């Protein structure tokens, strides 16, 4: 998006539902997202808030969602595992955090287990670490988990592609995570994200600089290519002339060799008396 768009960014309760008195928030261009406090952060949200995030045209392919004008791609959720579904190519954990909505946490199959103590080709591994085969073997229904991952949409429903998931050890640790979530809301989500015009212009210049450099490199490459072609065209007549001269020089050398051979043959005939009597009528 080359120009800033104006979108409605409604304030939301903890359950993610919009409230009255929505304010306007500026949706900044993509090249400004790195300045957002949410772009490259684990956004500690409630599940209902994840389902309430907005989507805007042009950002679906990158899985960017928006809270007001804040771009969100990575989320963090704390909740209870209420169901586990195992499929051939994936595993789904249903997470309930008490916000009124559940969310699916998607885990792809782990990489093949590696020998713990190493083994050479053709040998059977002597021992493998079970955690390598299933890093979430201790995650079962009823446990509280801390899930980090990328948010995406599948059939209009939000889900989390798990990057890391750990079991929360006790209520005290869970309370600490709740406090972090409250702080994140107060300091980040509820604070307006505003950029100065000079910051937007600088981001635009930074985004365009690689394109300019690439265009300059392409122009230089085309110029060098044309120069090489011109040099080859100049060398072709020269090579032809050289070849012709060499060929003519070869003919001259051949004629000189024939004359020398004839002279040597005549001299040999004279020495051997082959001409004796042939010119006797002339008194020679």
TrEMBL record:
The keyword DNA-binding applies. One of its GO terms (cellular component) is chromosome, telomeric region. Its main location: nucleus. Residues 112-135, 211-265 are annotated as: Disordered. It is found in: Chromosome, Telomere; Nucleus. It holds the Pfam family Stn1. Residues 117-128 have a biased composition (Polar residues). It comes from the Eukaryota. Residues 226-251 have a biased composition (Basic and acidic residues). GO terms for molecular function: DNA binding. Residues 63-105, 139-212 form the CST complex subunit Stn1 N-terminal domain. Keywords: Chromosome, DNA-binding, Nucleus, Telomere. This is CST complex subunit STN1. It comes from Trichoderma cornu-damae.
